[in-house]
Amino acid sequence: MKDIFARLASDFLSAIIFLAIYLVTDNVILATSVAVAGAIAQVIYARVKGHQLSFMTYASLALVIVLGAVTLLTNDPRFMLAKPSIAHFAIGTIMLKRDWMLRYMPPIITDTVPEYVTAAGYAWAALMFVIGAGTIAVASTGDLKLWAFYISVVAGGAKILAFAVQYVVLRVVVTSRRRAAARA
């Protein structure tokens, strides 16, 4: 679990840096410059340490640089704020692959209700697209406090709630099917 939080913090480090500096200084140019420099430094540090970097790491760096450049040229923070939406859209697109979620499920679920897992995979993809669209809508307002609330509470809460609902539904359905099979 600790590794998951470390990866999430690493993935969103440039957005966190940008937000923190912008909230403290109200200076878009400074916040963007430090966020871009931080993203580049993060990749250089990982390479020096010999860590294997994925395509998504380089794609994220490219996004920070491109969106950071647009933010600097326009002096408008909304471009940096929209970055997480691109990640949500990319993840949602990957989740459209049929049965992607089966490999993450225990055998009792994959053997009993694989069709529910497939449906859950598509529901997760839809959730990622909705969160991505919401991120763009909130970022377009330019309200940093609203954006921070949306990213941390709304988007994070929606994922936690979806996970909890999925857990309960799969548990109920598996239990029901196993009881029906035992009676038959």
UniProtKB/TrEMBL annotation:
Cellular component terms (Gene Ontology): plasma membrane
Keyword set, alphabetical order: Cell membrane, Membrane, Transmembrane, Transmembrane helix
Transmembrane segments: 12-41, 53-73, 79-96, 116-141, 147-170
Keyword Magnesium applies: no
One Pfam family here: IspA
InterPro entries, A to Z: YciB
Protein name: Septation protein IspZ
Organism: Bradyrhizobium commune
